[in-house]
């Protein structure tokens, strides 16, 4: 069936009326524009610029060449200001942070019920500051940046290595294993335990996380435009997505209830216990925000933010290693010179391994796992580059535009760690590499993610050499466009190092 057949099957009379009203309202929204908005491509009634985005995932890059680094698009009737390029992104998120650090009130894609916003979706203000400060302090208390957290990550690196050994030189896909390892680190922080990789409950958690991260454009539209849910194909797809959100949230609530039954204020075991303790301390406050639903939502967001992005980055890292065996060899030489065959890596070793650090920075740059950030919004009427942007306007931050900018990176599509190595062989940090975004809404779990990527990557290359299976075609480096920029599925062979 054609795209239009899927989008608009046969309607009843009520559905036709609803769509007609919706079409009229959307046309009004598209025709009325505040004065001095950034320019942008014309959109269709109801859909705005959605069809162009679906047809060409690189539409933003093409539109930026025509309209500049600040332009306007429409997702359905929603107006979105797009920021394209490092200079304008830094200007908005850092220099004008007071104006560009909020969230759209009509989005909440990372809220399981669409109402409880947690940390990720909460607009900029006192509640967000309070919850973020608590989350950061709690993560630090459970070892974020300390050796206790390193121990949890290295435990998973060993478990992952042992699973790889079971393949005994045969070709395999590492996707599921890698996601299990990274998700288990989050489980140890939040639940105080880890799962075996073949545990049915664990497999269902990962399945739900994958489904949420593979949200389709039409499902985003259904969230923004509820009347679209009368279309049977849209309704089925949207309901399936909601079911996976509910399954993940129900599991989290079950674990919270278990913690409530065994809670001991003198023995705080994990993040759930820390939240319960804080909730009990603040129950008399007039501005009480540590509710049970808020608790479940924050844990839900920690799972989503802390699983797929990190595991996808590590899969890209291994793909680049099998495609560039000379670089893999140089990384292994450095690992051997610092760690030898038996010493486990530590974050203290990172400064002694400049080429490895440069390689992982180049992975973050070229892979661009998060092409876009979670949408920002303006908290007041503001101006940017001479344009007027009204309060409450959604703002799209295109990180991909920074990491693939040929003015910043000569031959931007080439994998080249030496971009970050100076003549003295030292690692050189570049402020334009921003995989975790910048400003007040920078990723809450950035420090944890950097620890996981470095420790798991070095542990694996210390134990194995990764290669393409004999006779296998060379995998593409282009990846699959989406909310996460995923590598195309690929097989590899892991040879234990002598």
Automatic annotation (TrEMBL):
Keywords: Endoplasmic reticulum, Heme, Iron, Lipid metabolism, Membrane, Metal-binding, Microsome, Mitochondrion, Mitochondrion inner membrane, Monooxygenase, Oxidoreductase, Transmembrane, Transmembrane helix. Its EC number is 1.14.14.80. It is a multi-pass membrane protein. Its cofactor is heme. The keyword Transmembrane applies. Belongs to the cytochrome P450 family. InterPro entries: Cyt_P450, Cyt_P450_CS, Cyt_P450_E_grp-I, Cyt_P450_sf, Cytochrome_P450_fam2. The gene is CYP2U1. Pfam families: p450. Heme binds at residue 443. The keyword Membrane applies. A cytochrome P450 monooxygenase involved in the metabolism of arachidonic acid and its conjugates. Mechanistically, uses molecular oxygen inserting one oxygen atom into a substrate, and reducing the second into a water molecule, with two electrons provided by NADPH via cytochrome P450 reductase (CPR; NADPH-ferrihemoprotein reductase). Acts as an omega and omega-1 hydroxylase for arachidonic acid and possibly for other long chain fatty acids. May modulate the arachidonic acid signaling pathway and play a role in other fatty acid signaling processes. GO terms for biological process: lipid metabolic process; organic acid metabolic process; xenobiotic metabolic process. It catalyses: N-[(5Z,8Z,11Z,14Z)-eicosatetraenoyl]-serotonin + reduced [NADPH--hemoprotein reductase] + O2 = 2-oxo-N-[(5Z,8Z,11Z,14Z)-eicosatetraenoyl]-serotonin + oxidized [NADPH--hemoprotein reductase] + H2O + H(+); (5Z,8Z,11Z,14Z)-eicosatetraenoate + reduced [NADPH--hemoprotein reductase] + O2 = 20-hydroxy-(5Z,8Z,11Z,14Z)-eicosatetraenoate + oxidized [NADPH--hemoprotein reductase] + H2O + H(+); an omega-methyl-long-chain fatty acid + reduced [NADPH--hemoprotein reductase] + O2 = an omega-hydroxy-long-chain fatty acid + oxidized [NADPH--hemoprotein reductase] + H2O + H(+); (5Z,8Z,11Z,14Z)-eicosatetraenoate + reduced [NADPH--hemoprotein reductase] + O2 = 19-hydroxy-(5Z,8Z,11Z,14Z)-eicosatetraenoate + oxidized [NADPH--hemoprotein reductase] + H2O + H(+). This is Cytochrome P450 2U1. Its main location: endoplasmic reticulum. One of its GO terms (molecular function) is heme binding. GO terms for cellular component: endoplasmic reticulum membrane; mitochondrial inner membrane. It is found in: Endoplasmic reticulum membrane; Microsome membrane; Mitochondrion inner membrane.
């Amino acid at each position: 069936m054609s795209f239009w057949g899927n989008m608009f099957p046969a309607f009843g009379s009520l559905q036709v009326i609803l769509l007609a009203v919706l079409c009229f309202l959307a046309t009004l929204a598209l025709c009325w524009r505040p004065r001095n908005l950034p320019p942008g491509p014309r959109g269709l009634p109801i859909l705005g610029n959605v069809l162009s985005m679906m047809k060409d995932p690189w539409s933003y890059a093409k539109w930026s060449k025509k309209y500049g680094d600040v332009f306007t698009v429409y997702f359905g009737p929603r107006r979105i200001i797009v920021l394209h390029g490092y200079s304008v992104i830094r200007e908005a998120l850092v220099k004008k942070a007071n104006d560009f650090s909020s969230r759209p009130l009509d989005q909440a894609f990372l809220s399981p019920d669409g109402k409880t916003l947690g940390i990720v979706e909460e607009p900029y203000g006192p509640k967000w500051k309070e919850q973020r400060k608590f989350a950061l302090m709690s993560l630090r208390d459970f070892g974020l940046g300390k050796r206790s957290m390193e121990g949890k990550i290295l435990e998973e690196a060993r478990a992952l290595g042992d699973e790889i050994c079971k393949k005994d030189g045969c070709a395999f896909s590492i996707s599921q294993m890698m996601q299990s390892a990274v998700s288990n680190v989050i489980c140890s922080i939040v639940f105080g335990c880890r799962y075996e990789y073949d545990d049915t409950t664990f497999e269902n958690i990962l399945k739900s996380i994958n489904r949420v991260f593979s949200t389709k454009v039409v499902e985003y539209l259904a969230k923004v435009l509820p009347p679209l849910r009368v279309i049977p194909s849209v309704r089925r797809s949207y309901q399936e997505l909601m079911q996976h959100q509910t399954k993940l949230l129900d599991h989290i609530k079950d674990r919270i209830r278990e913690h409530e039954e065994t809670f001991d204020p003198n023995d705080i075991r994990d993040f759930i216990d820390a939240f319960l303790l804080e909730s009990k301390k603040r129950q008399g406050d007039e501005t009480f925000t540590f509710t049970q639903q808020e608790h479940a939502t924050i844990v839900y967001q920690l799972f989503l933010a802390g699983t797929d992005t990190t595991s996808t980055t590590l899969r890209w890292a291994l793909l680049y290693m099998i495609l560039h065996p000379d670089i893999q060899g140089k990384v292994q030489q450095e690992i051997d010179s610092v760690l030898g065959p038996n010493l486990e890596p530590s974050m203290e070793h990172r400064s002694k391994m400049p080429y490895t650090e440069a390689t992982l920075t180049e992975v973050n740059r070229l892979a661009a796992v998060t092409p876009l950030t979670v949408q920002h919004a303006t908290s007041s009427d503001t101006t940017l580059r001479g344009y007027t942007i009204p309060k409450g306007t959604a703002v799209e931050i295109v990180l991909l535009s920074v990491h693939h900018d040929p003015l910043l990176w000569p031959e931007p599509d080439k994998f080249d760690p030496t971009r970050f190595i100076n003549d003295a062989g030292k690692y050189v940090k570049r402020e334009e590499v921003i995989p975790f975004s910048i400003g007040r809404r920078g990723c809450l779990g950035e420090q944890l993610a950097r620890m996981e990527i470095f420790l798991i990557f070095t542990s694996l290359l210390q134990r194995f050499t990764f290669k393409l299976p004999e006779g296998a075609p060379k995998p593409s480096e282009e990846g699959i466009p989406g909310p996460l920029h995923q590598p195309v599925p690929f097989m590899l062979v892991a040879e234990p190092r002598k």
